[in-house]
């Protein structure tokens, strides 16, 4: 039996700082505890000593020196290693956070600072009615990101009044599970699939959601265009190295906000991190589609992704069209059921997923793999040679392309046969100049094998381009996504077609736009305002009849077709190299890029990865591919954990299917992305 003096000597004093929300200053409380007391018992003692009647259920203990939460309340202080010198903070797990959304709207809501970021983002997205939260994450921007906008206020050019959408009463504030928000696949459609307006009749069914119909419209509708002055102030030309530095701010999905030094009421960016958009559905995804459109729009306007002038004008025309429809959307009457069915059928081919949309078609004999055969022009770049194309007879079958001197020699040996699995496919098109080219970068042992194909007309280009794109993913033309891809390419080409000058002239008289709002500042400087307006209106004739949601999906689709789409850059040093390179991470591949020239050097497909790991001591990422190919690199512009998570995250997203009923294997995500540190 222990005497009272023995018991007293085994106990010790523990100092706990109480972060009381109703008091400005934190209050220090000293408890007498023993090492075998569990964390729950410490919290109970603490609440009894504070002696304030309130709901303490959201409070937990935070260990400042170790930078961790003590959330396992059944663990003893000895098991955690807590001793008398520990500094503990008794604080709410849910705190206010300011998030700037892709449409630049600031939202203030209560977020869990104790849950891992993956779970916190899931709760945030449920509050904001954004499905597929695994595609988004939180980005801590560079220190000067928010300061740039404040300079404007001092100059009094055009003061920006920060309009914050306050969702303080969000269901993420409670410890209970979050409500499904405004989307639920068991309900009838909750958004009009034509204009994206929320169905007010269903709004009352979710009274616990902080998103009122008005707030929902703010997130689901496009914001008015920024003035050219505001756009110019935000614009900042960036090299690949600059872009790589911006990507250093992604938060670790396997750790909590508190563990990563995020403060209460701090500003973070909520962005689509993974460019793999699964199951976009206009009936449920008005907010998601709009935020995705806004992220794409700003990427184009601020030249975070490169595009040709012709493509810039198409993006401008779609923006102009969307901004006009967004202004009038509130006055549109709700559509009848038959109209909903018609637009749903029309949009079925526009469903943007990893593998493309599905279209109704007759079942084909899958044993008979289709082939393409036609005359195309070929150019193989060599030093000191002009770009001269030569005609050959090309045959495309399975995932390989072969070419012969003429059609009669097709049964013999080809001049060359190339497997396009894992290659880079880049459009080289100028519709006005009747140029329909395909640039292929085919991985070989010592780098990339480059070749250019030239087609005669749109239809030929669409068929061969779609075949090349599928082959690069290891798929043949027998795949169900081939025909929809051909139609999508043709549709995009038709948007580039020039219209008659008379239509544009009449539109110019009634012009109600500032053309510099819809193009990047660099593009705006090249043209006079009227000339730019005329060219935008000319492109607008091709999209003028599109409904609002379809126009946004077209914009997203056009963004996806750009050569640099989905590439996230990091500055790395490959093992054995004496110079720095850029590593591009995409949804299906890694690309080694020359930092000086921006030219791709080597491509590795995720499908060829056997395993990858991180040496946490040397901070080196090692990847093993098929055929005993290894590569290793250290990250210079960011922590190697960020790149490690990107690779694992994309591989995780590739496992999704519609049969999963939107439930995610969170353990698998952390297994693929968490590392071992």
UniProtKB/TrEMBL annotation:
<feature type="compositionally biased region" description="Low complexity">
    <location>
        <begin position="169"/>
        <end position="180"/>
    </location>
</feature>
<dbReference type="GO" id="GO:0005925">
    <property type="term" value="C:focal adhesion"/>
</dbReference>
<dbReference type="InterPro" id="IPR001849">
    <property type="entry name" value="PH_domain"/>
</dbReference>
<dbReference type="InterPro" id="IPR035963">
    <property type="entry name" value="FERM_2"/>
</dbReference>
<dbReference type="InterPro" id="IPR011993">
    <property type="entry name" value="PH-like_dom_sf"/>
</dbReference>
<dbReference type="GO" id="GO:0007229">
    <property type="term" value="P:integrin-mediated signaling pathway"/>
</dbReference>
<dbReference type="InterPro" id="IPR019749">
    <property type="entry name" value="Band_41_domain"/>
</dbReference>
<dbReference type="Pfam" id="PF00373">
    <property type="entry name" value="FERM_M"/>
</dbReference>
<dbReference type="InterPro" id="IPR019748">
    <property type="entry name" value="FERM_central"/>
</dbReference>
<keyword id="KW-0966">Cell projection</keyword>
<dbReference type="InterPro" id="IPR037837">
    <property type="entry name" value="PH_Kindlin/fermitin"/>
</dbReference>
<dbReference type="GO" id="GO:0007160">
    <property type="term" value="P:cell-matrix adhesion"/>
</dbReference>
<dbReference type="Pfam" id="PF18124">
    <property type="entry name" value="Kindlin_2_N"/>
</dbReference>
<protein>
    <recommendedName>
        <fullName>PH domain-containing protein</fullName>
    </recommendedName>
</protein>
<dbReference type="InterPro" id="IPR037843">
    <property type="entry name" value="Kindlin/fermitin"/>
</dbReference>
<dbReference type="GO" id="GO:0030335">
    <property type="term" value="P:positive regulation of cell migration"/>
</dbReference>
<keyword id="KW-0965">Cell junction</keyword>
<dbReference type="InterPro" id="IPR040790">
    <property type="entry name" value="Kindlin_2_N"/>
</dbReference>
<comment type="similarity">
    <text>Belongs to the kindlin family.</text>
</comment>
<dbReference type="GO" id="GO:0042995">
    <property type="term" value="C:cell projection"/>
</dbReference>
<dbReference type="GO" id="GO:0005178">
    <property type="term" value="F:integrin binding"/>
</dbReference>
<feature type="domain" description="PH">
    <location>
        <begin position="377"/>
        <end position="473"/>
    </location>
</feature>
<feature type="region of interest" description="Disordered">
    <location>
        <begin position="161"/>
        <end position="180"/>
    </location>
</feature>
<keyword id="KW-0130">Cell adhesion</keyword>
């Amino acid at each position: 039996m222990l005497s009272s003096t023995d018991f007293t000597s085994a106990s010790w004093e523990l100092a706990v700082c109480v972060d009381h929300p109703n008091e400005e200053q934190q209050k220090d409380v000293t408890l007498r505890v023993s090492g075998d007391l569990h964390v729950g018992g410490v919290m109970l003692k603490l609440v009894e000593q504070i002696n304030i009647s309130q709901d303490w259920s959201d409070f937990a203990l935070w260990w400042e020196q170790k930078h961790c939460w003590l959330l396992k309340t059944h663990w003893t202080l000895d098991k955690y290693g807590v001793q008398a010198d520990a500094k503990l903070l008794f604080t709410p797990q849910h705190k206010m956070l300011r998030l700037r959304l892709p449409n630049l709207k600031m939202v203030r809501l209560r977020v869990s600072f104790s849950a891992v970021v993956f779970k916190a983002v899931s709760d945030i997205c449920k509050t904001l009615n954004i499905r597929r939260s695994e595609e988004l994450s939180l980005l801590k921007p560079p220190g000067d990101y928010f300061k740039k906008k404040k300079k404007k206020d001092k100059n009094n050019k055009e003061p920006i009044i920060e309009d914050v959408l306050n969702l303080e009463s969000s269901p993420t504030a409670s410890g209970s599970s979050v409500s499904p928000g405004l989307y639920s696949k068991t309900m009838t459609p909750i958004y009009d699939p034509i204009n994206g307006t929320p169905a007010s009749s269903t709004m009352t069914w979710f009274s616990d959601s902080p998103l009122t119909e008005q707030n929902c419209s703010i997130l689901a509708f496009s914001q008015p265009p920024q003035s050219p002055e505001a756009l110019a102030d935000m614009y900042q030309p960036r090299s690949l190295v600059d872009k790589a530095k911006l990507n250093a701010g992604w938060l670790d999905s396997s750790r909590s906000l508190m563990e990563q030094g995020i403060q209460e009421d701090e500003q973070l960016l909520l962005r689509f991190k993974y460019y793999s958009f699964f199951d976009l559905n206009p009936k449920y995804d008005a907010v998601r589609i709009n935020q995705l459109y806004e992220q794409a729009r700003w990427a184009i306007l601020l030249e975070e992704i490169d595009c040709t002038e012709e493509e810039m004008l198409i993006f401008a025309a779609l923006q102009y069209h969307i901004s006009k429809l967004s202004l009038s959307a509130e006055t549109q009457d709700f559509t009848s059921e038959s109209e909903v069915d018609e637009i749903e059928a029309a949009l079925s081919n526009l469903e943007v997923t990893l593998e493309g949309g599905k279209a109704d078609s007759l079942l084909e004999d899958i044993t008979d793999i289709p082939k393409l055969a036609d005359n195309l022009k070929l150019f193989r770049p060599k030093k000191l040679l002009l770009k001269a194309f030569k005609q050959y007879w090309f045959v495309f079958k399975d995932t390989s392309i072969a070419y012969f001197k003429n059609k009669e020699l097709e049964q013999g040996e080809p001049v060359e046969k190339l497997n396009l699995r894992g290659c880079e496919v880049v459009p080289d098109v100028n519709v006005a100049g009747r140029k329909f080219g395909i640039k292929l970068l085919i991985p070989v042992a010592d780098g990339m094998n480059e070749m250019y194909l030239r087609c005669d007309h749109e239809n030929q280009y669409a068929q061969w381009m779609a075949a090349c794109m599928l082959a690069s993913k290891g798929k043949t033309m027998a795949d169900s996504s081939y025909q929809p891809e051909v139609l999508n390419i043709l549709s995009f080409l038709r948007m580039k077609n020039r219209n008659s000058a008379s239509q544009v002239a009449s539109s110019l008289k009634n012009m109600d736009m500032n053309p510099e709002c819809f193009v990047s500042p660099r593009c705006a400087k090249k043209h006079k305002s009227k000339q730019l307006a005329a060219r935008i209106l000319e492109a607008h004739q091709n999209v003028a009849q599109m409904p609002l949601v379809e126009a946004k999906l077209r914009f997203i689709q056009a963004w996806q077709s750009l050569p640099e789409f989905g590439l996230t850059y990091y500055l790395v040093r490959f093992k054995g190299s004496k110079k720095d390179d850029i590593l591009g991470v995409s949804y299906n591949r890694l690309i080694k890029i020359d930092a000086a020239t921006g030219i791709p050097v080597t491509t590795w497909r995720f499908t060829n990865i056997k395993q990858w790991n991180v040496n946490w001591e040397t901070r080196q990422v090692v990847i093993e591919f098929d055929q005993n190919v290894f590569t290793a690199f250290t990250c210079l512009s960011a922590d190697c954990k960020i790149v490690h998570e990107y690779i694992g995250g994309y591989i995780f997203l590739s496992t999704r299917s519609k049969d999963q009923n939107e439930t995610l294997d969170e353990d698998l995500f952390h297994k693929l992305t968490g590392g071992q540190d």
